[in-house]
Amino acid sequence: MKIKFDYRYVLLLFVPAAFLAQPLGWGEVVQFMAAAVAIIPLAGFIGEGTEELAAYTGPQFGGLLNATLGNAAELIITIVAIKEGVLELVIASITGSILGNLLLVLGFSMLLGGIRNGRQKFESTRASNNATMMMLAVVALMVPAIFGAFIDVDHHEALRPFSIGVAVVMIVIYGLGVLFSFTDKVENNPLTRPSAHAHEATWSVGKAAAVLIAATVMIVFMSELLVESVEHVVAQLGWSEFFVGIIIVPLVGNVAEHLVAVQVAVKNQMDLSTEIALGSSLQVALFVAPLLVIIAALMGVELSFSFNEFELVALASAGIVAVFAFKDGETNWLEGAQLLALYAILGVAFFFL
Q1: DSSP state of 22
Q2: Highest mean pLDDT among 165-169, 302-306, 326-330
Q3: Claim: this prediction has a pTM higher than 0.70
Q4: DSSP strand pairing (330-331 vs 120-121)
């Protein structure tokens, strides 16, 4: 019998390493790195457990389940960061997650898919609608950020209710999109996440639920260790808290999902790849970001859509590039390289801020 190698079990060795870093005197940097790497396989198990449960619930509810848990790892990390008062990391991770999906994931998908399959075609109307919705989502983040900056100057006490009000509206829009997916028969609705890669269940419901719970609990612990060591990493490695939030956190929280998008692109399933990347971006912009604002308010922490001017420029640039990338209904490896180049430029710029 052929045994399939699973990298996740090897990376799980970093879980005890993260716990032991402080007791054994390895230092905060080792603790940060070990915790970050440990989150990668745990996020992968959350994704697999969700997919297994979706096989029992049917495509529509399964899609909703995927949408709800798709960014669970990153959501947990940011909630822990809110509790610890590391708010710059929280805001930066929202921007970084959107940029990562639109530029890094799509870039690698187009590059490797194009090298393997040549020009790849996809349903242009569907992709254009998704890209347009992504632009609307980016604007939905930019407007409260700009208006909030002015409100904060003259009426600081109004900033929290303003942010919560905007957050509620954004979640309502997201909810309406999910409701539409239940009433409209179009396949692969971007707000409920693609399910074309779904397979027949190989786990029992009990096993899937147990894996989800165990992986979630362990991510909470790893997030605690990661966030508490951020200040030491900033001091010792010269990284800024902003860079950690905009590059590192989105990567470790979503790498399992990113790999799926790239893998299906290599298999010449570009429709599915774009749905995964755009669907995740939409979820972060319209659900995760406003949910964090509300959670922070419940925790007594003041968190608003306070993106700085650099983040706003990066979000607008990524949104515009995404629209142009999908306008003709086909991709090639050069377009992928261009998206990766833009991500690299932004990453270098953020590193030196």
Answers
A1: T
A2: 165-169
A3: yes
A4: antiparallel
- What is the distance between the alpha carbons of residues 78 and 109, in angstroms, rounded to a whole number? 27
pLDDT at 179 over 80: no
Tell me how far apart the alpha carbons of residues 128 and 122 are, in angstroms, rounded to a whole number. Answer: 10
Total number of residues shown for the chain: 353
Mean pLDDT rounded to a whole number for the chain: 82
Half-sphere exposure of 213 (CA within 13 A, CB side): 6
Phi first, then psi: give them for residue 329, nearest 5 degrees.
Answer: 75, 15
CA atoms within 13 A on the CB side of 276: 27
What is the torsional sign of CA 110, 116, 119, 121?
Answer: negative
The residue behind tokens 């940011």 is 78
Domains of the chain, start order: 7-351 (1.20.1420.30)
Phi first, then psi, for residue 71 (nearest 5°) are -115, 30
| DSSP letter assigned to residue 85 | T
Between the alpha carbon of residue 341 and those of residues 128, 146, 254, the distances in Å are: 22, 28, 20
Q: Which of these, 125, 71, 112, 146, lies nearest to 312 by C-alpha position?
A: 146
User: Using an 8 Å Cβ cutoff, are 353 and 145 in contact?
Assistant: no
23-41: pLDDT as tens digits: 998 989 999 999 999 988 8
Beta strand ranges found along the chain (DSSP E): 120-121, 330-331
d(CA 127, CA 331): 12
Tokens of 235: 């001091």
Measure the CA–CA gap between 322 and 339, rounded to whole angstroms: 9
Radius of gyration for the chain, computed over Cα atoms and rounded to the nearest angstrom:
20
Band (pLDDT 50/70/90 cuts) for residue 45 is confident
DSSP three-state, residue 24: coil
Tokens in use for 271? 């429709």
Write down the residue that tokens 């940029």 correspond to: 99
CA distance 60 to 113: 28
What is the share, in percent, of the chain residues with pLDDT greater than 90?
A: 19
